[in-house]
């Protein structure tokens, strides 16, 4: 049976994410795409490759995480609605691009689709830009497409994050020898400050997720805060404070001895987690005499797969 026959009449699911290079050789092309056709300088490229090389196993596991999430969502949709949905992948900065995923749906005879991004919080600059690209290609390809814009307070997402924060605090207790005081830092990828001027919901949604998880774990208001990470290197101001500044202040001004980082803005192990937190932030904390642990990422957690599947089914109803 051809793909067209097999998928005709099914609802397509375009699973979108930022994308990662497939190998060290792809790093230059990947960042050239991010920089809108401007290749990174030799110095920037060396820095970027160094970051990937510093992560155990290099680039390759990063792409596997996304592939695994798409496969996990397909499995979960098949359990909840047998034979009804078929998943496609569309990446912002790597192949298959968002447009490629939509075109593949059209080739396979899909007429109705739902788009969802592997990021729980909506921003016009992130999720909004994915949706715009998918919508334009869907219209050109004759596909009726609806979208999940955010799912930052889905009960199963909150449950998965709550379990991870509780587990992380237990690990921190052990690894730090039970030192006090402890602070939980919720974090997400920074965006340019101008999103505040347009009333973008990104920051509000991140704070809502953080507050909900802190409440479920039983963390007092004064024992957690939100911080930013992984800001871009551009001339315009980005949302702050950055986690490295936050750690410095917590250690020197508040006497914090142990920190659990909960990067709730991310859903899988990739560069911003494995390098920016596990290597850079951990080293900074060590110099300050602060014990630092990070929560486990969602990756293919069944509760996260159910969050995605239920959100897709609701959007496609």
From TrEMBL:
Its main location: cytoplasm. It catalyses: Fe-coproporphyrin III + 2 H(+) = coproporphyrin III + Fe(2+). GO terms for biological process: heme biosynthetic process. It comes from Paenibacillus radicis. InterPro entries: Ferrochelatase, Ferrochelatase_AS, Ferrochelatase_C, Ferrochelatase_N. This is Coproporphyrin III ferrochelatase. Involved in coproporphyrin-dependent heme b biosynthesis. Catalyzes the insertion of ferrous iron into coproporphyrin III to form Fe-coproporphyrin III. Keywords: Cytoplasm, Heme biosynthesis, Iron, Lyase, Metal-binding, Porphyrin biosynthesis. It is found in: Cytoplasm. Fe-coproporphyrin III binds at residues 18, 35, 51-52, 130. The gene is hemH.
């Amino acid at each position: 049976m051809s793909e067209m026959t097999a998928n005709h009449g099914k609802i397509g699911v375009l699973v979108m994410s930022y994308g990662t290079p497939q190998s060290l050789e792809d790093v230059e092309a990947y960042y050239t795409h991010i920089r809108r056709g401007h290749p990174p300088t030799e110095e920037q490229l060396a820095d970027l490759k160094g970051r990937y090389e510093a992560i155990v196993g290099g680039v390759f596991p990063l792409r596997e995480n996304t592939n695994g999430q798409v496969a996990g969502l397909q499995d979960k949709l098949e359990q909840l609605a047998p034979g009804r949905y078929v998943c496609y992948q569309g990446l912002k900065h790597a192949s298959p691009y968002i447009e490629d995923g939509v075109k593949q749906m059209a080739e396979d005879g899909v007429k109705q689709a739902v788009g969802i991004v592997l990021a729980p919080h909506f921003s016009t600059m992130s999720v909004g830009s994915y949706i715009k690209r998918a919508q334009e290609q869907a219209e050109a390809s004759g596909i009726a497409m609806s979208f999940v814009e955010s799912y930052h307070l889905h009960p199963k997402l909150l449950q998965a994050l709550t379990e991870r924060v509780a587990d992380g605090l237990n690990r921190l207790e052990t690894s730090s020898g039970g030192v006090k005081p402890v602070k939980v830092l919720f974090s997400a990828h920074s965006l340019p400050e101008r999103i505040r001027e347009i009333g973008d919901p990104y920051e509000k949604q991140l704070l809502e997720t953080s507050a909900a998880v802190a409440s479920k774990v039983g963390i007092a208001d004064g024992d957690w805060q939100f911080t930013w990470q992984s800001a871009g290197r551009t001339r315009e101001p980005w949302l702050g404070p950055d986690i490295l500044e936050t750690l410095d202040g917590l250690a020197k001004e508040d006497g914090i001895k142990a920190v659990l980082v909960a990067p709730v803005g991310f859903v899988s192990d990739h560069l911003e987690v494995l390098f920016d937190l596990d290597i850079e932030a951990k080293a900074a904390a060590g110099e300050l005499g602060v014990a630092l642990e990070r929560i486990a990422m969602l990756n293919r957690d069944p509760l996260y797969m159910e969050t995605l599947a239920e959100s897709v089914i609701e959007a496609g109803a």
